[in-house]
What we know:
This protein is mainly alpha-helical. The chain has helices spanning 2-10, 15-27, 31-44, 49-54, 65-70.
Amino acid sequence: MREANLAMALRPNEATVLYNVACIFCRLEEKSDALDALTKAWNAGFRESDWARRDPDLALLRGDSEFERLYPEKNPTA
């Protein structure tokens, strides 16, 4: 947790760092912190919905309304 917070402090606007921090927080079952980091990653430019939806590290967030808003399923009926 300390290293994740340090990474965000050192690179607060780097999308990949924020995304990876979200993954770490998910693995630590810190859902609120994970969602906050993932929202910051999205705002910083990480918009790869397909990747975020497949990433097993983010399983904790799937189904959360904010996660679904940021990274919607493409063609859910296709």
